[in-house]
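Researcher: Structure prediction, please.
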Amino acid sequence: MIDQAPLARPYGKALFEAALEAKDLDGTHSAIQELAKISETKEVALFIDEPTHTKKEIANKLIEILGGSINDLTVKLLNVLAENKRLNLISNINIIYTELLEKHNQQTNVSVSIATDVSEETKEHLLTKLKKSYGDNTSIAFKIDPSIMGGLSVMVGDESLDLSIKGRVKKLINQLNF
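Model: Predicted structure follows.
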């Protein structure tokens, strides 16, 4: 499969710059996220790839589906993508836009996977420790993942700190099989 990121990058940058100029970074971000979420559904993906519909019809249908949750900049983006036959790039444009927004906000995204739901006190303790390490402008998301069996796993960008039982078992198996 072809990596579409290089094709999507100019659109993502243009959307970001237009949103920056319009002072609507967050509104555009939520609109492009909604658009990406819709475009990734099986039905819409098939509709986008359907050769019997014109690209303009597809763009208008997407705008109709999203209704009020899409702003003017995203509507313009959809029309440009339709005109250039690039509607399949929506998800990649969302990723690029999000990366640019995080870089602009100097925000660090941290994902914490836990086996079971923990108390608010424990979450607050983790939040305090992570914000101390990565700064106050850190976005922290907790995710329940029973497959880790216990402990926790922390992802920061492409770095991982695996303190889960599953991770320790894998490490032990690797050490025994070296």
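Model: Helices lie at 5-21, 25-39, 42-49, 55-66, 72-83, 90-105, 120-134, 165-177.
Researcher: Thanks, that helps.
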